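Supplementary Methods, section 5.1.

A reviewer requested that the exact input to the structure prediction be made available. We therefore reproduce it here, unchanged from the version used in the analyses.
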Amino acid sequence: MPLTSSSNDKELTVQAEVKRIEDSFVLCPRFPSVGERYYEKYYYRDPDRTHRHDQIICVHSNRLVLISLAPRHGLFSKEGSFTVDYRVTPKCDRSANSVRGKGKKGAQELSPEANLCVIKPQEGEEFFVKALVKGKLVEVNKSLLNDPQALKRYPQGQGFIALILPNLPEGLAQLKATYLSEKEYYCKEKYDPTADV
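The structure derived from this sequence is encoded token-by-token as follows.
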């Protein structure tokens, strides 16, 4: 479509192709999810590849840590029902955690080896989910007590196990030095001949 412009008896004609607005910019093929935008992911790879009790540690930009099961956890390959129990010992119930204020007073102190919960499959042996991070337990996902299948449906969303406030800055530094990045985790799985992929 030609465009014309007149100024002081001079006429200028410009040939320009006018694109449709939809074609004038490049669309992003897929908008990143909230987890991809705000969480940095680290993986714990269980050395016992027969059970594959792998876990994922999602570090939010506000430094809170979300603990859940990694996509290649052995639970995801099993059928059947299971339960989640936050009573890890007769004297320690993680669901009774009571946190107050900015300093998270009253929170249960956790070591990396501390058990967060026990998952009890209908068939097979039960297993513990570890904290993996030194810090304070902020919250456990009590909805898993009523709907444990959310752990399988939304492992990095509504099916998270717990939120932890790591000891700063040494807790985050230890986490980043100890665990695998997403790329390292999947590369190890790809080339590990004992992995059941």
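The longest helix spans residues 182-191. These observations are discussed further in the main text.
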